[in-house]
Specification:
The chain has helices spanning about 5-25, 30-50, 70-85, 95-100, 110-135, 140-155, 155-165, 170-185, 190-200, 220-240, 245-255, 270-280, 285-290, 290-300, 300-325, 335-345, 360-370, 380-395, 405-410, 410-425. The chain is an all-alpha fold. The chain has one domain (about 30-55, about 65-440).
């Protein structure tokens, strides 16, 4: 074979490689999402369950379950019972939670738990399928929503939510319905403000979604009046049981944020991550990678790391808000919605993994109307990378920390990856409304 023939063959093979690369990059964006989703499934389920060093199927307890079941719900019921019997209020939850639990105080906790389990399930159906399907109109987006719902049903976070009898899904449902009514059923806006306030007073962190009640970013006066009205309504809710419960609630909130007992690998808040660094939680694995100096530096500067992470989270939030203001984005704003959700998961000092049960709803809505459209050709590779990172990071949080290596057991890194990815995506050129859907090409 002479040099000319060899060159022709090499050039042909190189051309084939380039063609294959081009075809791979032109795959529908939805394929990239599910491809990375399956990669995380293999890594965090198939591998630890079937391919572990013990050479046996290893599928043991994957959350720190409490007997009897519904531990947090039983706590809420005891709060309602104490208030109903003695007028006592001495907890760190908003007074509205105690008021809502008072009618159930005299009932059998096991019976109440059964009812609340059904309510949690129906609320999860509402936030992951019903409301998102009313907001997302694209066929591929609806497929994504259904997939996130089905996978979320077997997720560690959702099971954790039901096992504890928690109220995150219920509170998030109030907020999502409120936002939907505000943007799509304007005649029910006053009802939306009430529902939003109920959600805030069940779980304080939904207050971050206040920016979802902006119609026109340039109407400063209207927005200020609306926010002031919602603020007054929330202040009224705070005093539903009088002044003394408000004082006890504020005192409890101040104390609870300083308790180290709430810090563990299943608390993905920034504060928890900082305290885990200080305690040398990741020392063993970092030592295995010969990162002794980094471990020492991280432990000594954990507070600075926490401050830096908090600044980065708030900066992402402000950047997306500025982008929305710059574009004067009107109607339901999926970028603000997903960023607000991630901030709500990261910033509160106590953010156990059961709060992850609300994430699938926000991801489905954020990507639903975007994932089936042709991105700008100049940013297609970046867009694929961001979708892949979001998919892998999101699917990783569906699995228990018991299935992961030490560095990945805490979900803060995955949430930060999603936060950065969605922030960058908010600044990418938006696909044209009439863009072709890949599956149709």
């Amino acid at each position: 074979m002479d040099k000319t023939q060899l060159w022709i063959q090499l050039r042909g093979k190189f051309t084939n490689v380039l063609t294959l690369k081009h075809e791979i990059l032109q795959l529908p964006i939805l394929y990239w999402f599910f491809g990375n989703f399956l990669a995380a499934y293999f890594l965090f389920f198939i591998s630890p369950v079937f391919l572990n060093p013990e050479q046996s199927m290893k599928f043991g307890p994957y959350l720190d379950a409490i007997t009897p079941i519904g531990g947090d719900l039983r706590l809420f019921l005891s709060m309602g019972r104490a208030f109903a019997d003695q007028g006592d209020f001495s907890n760190a939850y908003p007074p509205l939670v105690t008021l809502l639990m008072t009618p159930f105080a005299s009932m059998d906790p096991a019976a109440v738990y059964k009812v609340f389990t059904l309510i949690i399930f129906l609320s999860y159906l509402c936030i992951t399928v019903v409301i998102p399907s009313l907001i997302v109109k694209k066929e591929q987006g609806l497929l994504l929503i259904v997939a996130l719902f089905l996978t979320g049903l077997s997720s560690y976070g959702f099971h954790f939510e039901m096992e504890r009898g928690q109220l995150n899904v219920i509170a998030f449902q109030f907020v999502l319905i409120a936002v939907y009514l505000f943007h799509y059923k304007p005649r029910f806006r006053y009802l939306a403000y009430v529902l939003f306030s109920i959600g805030v007073h069940i779980k304080i962190y939904p207050a971050i979604f206040i920016l979802m009640f902006i119609d026109d970013w340039k109407e400063w006066g209207v927005n200020f009046k609306r926010f002031a009205g919602i603020g007054i309504l929330n202040l009224a809710f705070l005093f539903v049981l009088g002044y003394q419960p408000v004082s006890a609630f504020l005192h409890g909130i101040t104390n609870i944020t300083t308790l180290a007992s709430y810090v563990w690998i299943g608390n993905h808040s920034i504060k928890s991550f900082v305290m885990l660094l200080q305690a040398g939680q990741f020392q063993e694995v970092l030592s295995n990678y010969k990162l002794f100096a980094f471990q020492s530096w991280a432990a000594e500067n954990a507070a600075k790391v926490g401050s830096a992470l908090t600044i980065l989270v708030l900066l992402c939030f402000l950047l997306v808000a500025f982008r929305s203001f710059q574009q004067n984005a009107k109607g339901f704003n999926p970028d603000i919605f997903i960023i607000s959700t991630l901030v709500a998961l990261l910033v509160p000092a106590i953010s156990h993994d059961y709060t992850l049960s609300i994430l699938g709803s926000a991801v489905g809505i954020a990507l639903g109307n975007r994932i089936g459209l042709e991105p700008n050709s100049r940013f297609r590779l970046l867009y694929i990378l961001l979708i892949s990172l979001i998919s892998f990071a999101y699917s990783s949080v569906l699995f228990s920390y018991t299935n992961k290596s030490l560095l990945l057991q805490n979900n803060l890194p995955a949430l930060m990856v999603m936060l950065f990815s969605f922030t960058i995506m908010a600044f990418l050129p938006q696909p044209a409304p009439d863009s072709k859907i890949f599956l149709d090409t």
